[in-house]
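Dig into these lines:

——
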Amino acid sequence: MRAGRTKTTSFSLDDATLSNLKALASRRHKGNVSALLAEIASREAKFAAAEEYFEKYGVPPLDDEAVERIEAEWRGEGRPKRSRRRAA
């Protein structure tokens, strides 16, 4: 984000949410919460566009089991890799 190309606004957040935003901003944007919020807004716009695409072309939503498998993989809890056998 460049100075002068932004608008100022305010949000009412609980302490835990604000603390989490600041921690994320610290790790991803050198503490710049505005940059983090801009990234989140951009990502959400892409997510909304993907939802519209899926709806338009009849792609069914993920069921709860599929969502859990994906989230487990993100957490590093995916299925263990099978060891390969050596060729004889």
